[in-house]
Amino acid sequence: MQILGIDIGGSGIKGAPVDIDTGELVAERYRIPTPEPSVPDAVADVVKEIVKNFNWKGPIGCTFPAIVRRNVVESAANVDQGWIGVDGQKLIQKKTKCPTLFINDADAAGIAEMQFGAGRGNEGVVIMLTLGTGIGSAIFYKGVLLPNTELGHIEIRGKDAELRASDRIRQEKELDWDDWGARVNEYVQRVEYLFSPDLFIIGGGVSKKADKFLPLIHPAHAQIVPAQLLNDAGIVGAAMAASALAS
Ligand code: BGC
User: What's the predicted TM-score (pTM) here?
Assistant: First the structure.
């Protein structure tokens, strides 16, 4: 079965049709920069553009980089504040005329990694962390997701963790891999202390450069591995989550 997966991020909005039985993209992904300001209507117009690009008529799975509880956006750390209180599912359905599932971006990425990537078959506690514009998290136990965890916002050295250790901060502050790696290490060790996971999966665009910083991250007990679906995990996971809409 094919479903259109769309990943709304702080800097880009990208989409591709996904074969949800294999987790593979069936066409090259299409990316448009996130509009500024990232107000709901402008973002929904970009989603519509992506749907049009693939001439898509079926169900859509769409991620969003904030808390999404029962389709409603409840935070806005890296998007316009105008999103708070918006029913994302309704908005996207209205614009695209396609049945839509709306889900937090890290939760979607985690779903994909648990099924097709680095978390496959793990029955313990798995924490996926996405290092991007912000830091997203998804926690699984026995393969079941605890939705909307926000581990990017725990406090480290008096600051929101994602303001110290996200990939955006690495780029903005021009941190070298050692300096940034030390920040990510401190963060991962704190999360480990709080949740005692068996496995950390590190995702986000920077996970393709895992060899540069993962050797600097030393959890006390947990294993730590890069995401296998790299930056496509959000697209794939969103499509998977939307599969119920197609049956
Ligand atoms: C948001 C999360 C999101 C993460 C990654 C954080 O700032 O609060 O909901 O998953 O960024 O985009």
Answer: 0.97
From the CA of 68, give the closest atom in ligand 1: 9
Write the pLDDT tens digit of every residue in 72-120.
999 999 999 999 999 999 999 999 999 999 999 999 999 999 999 999 9
The closest residue, in CA terms, to atom 2 on ligand 1 is 66
What's the gap in Å between 95 CA and the centre of ligand 1? Answer: 24
The reported pLDDT for the residue numbered 246 is: 79
Within 102-149, where are the H helices? 105-116
CATH class of 121-227: alpha beta
Q: Which helix or strand (DSSP H or E) is residue 213 part of?
A: helix 210-213
The domains of the chain are located at 2-107+233-246, 121-227
Kindly indicate whether the domain formed by 2-107+233-246 is annotated with CATH number 3.30.420.40. Answer: yes
CA 231 to chain centre: 9
